[in-house]
TrEMBL record:
It comes from Alistipes communis. Keywords: Cell inner membrane, Cell membrane, Ion channel, Ion transport, Membrane, Metal-binding, Sodium, Transmembrane, Transmembrane helix, Transport. The gene is crcB. This is Fluoride-specific ion channel FluC. One of its GO terms (biological process) is cellular detoxification of fluoride. The keyword Signal does not apply. Na(+) binds at residues 75, 78. GO terms for cellular component: plasma membrane. Belongs to the fluoride channel Fluc/FEX (TC 1.A.43) family. The chain crosses the membrane at residues 34-55, 67-84, 96-121.
Amino acid sequence: MKTLLLIGCGSFAGGVLRYGVSRLLQGSQWLSLPLGTFCVNILGCLLLGVCYGLLEHYRVLSEEIRLLFIVGFCGSFTTFSTFIHENLLLVRQSDLAGLAFYVSLSVASGLLAVHAGHWLVKMG
């Protein structure tokens, strides 16, 4: 039961923050791409990198904090389903160049953000 409560609390906080960031950036488009989803996903990747860096280099995160933050918060803050839906919208608009750019930029930026999170912990 404790595990479910930890994940649930983290999920609540991550979901609420994702909603807030999306509302803040609602209607913001960069090169006709949805900026809100892109920002939360890349920030979530950076936070995951920091968490995994802390686990790997310092072993400072307890199992409870890992469940609360990595599984709950980051899992709820980032949004793969919205990302995929937005890609479907680009397909329906026949914006294949935008689709290719958005997918490539998201994956490359996500990988760089996770790596940057690891690096920040290692250098700190």
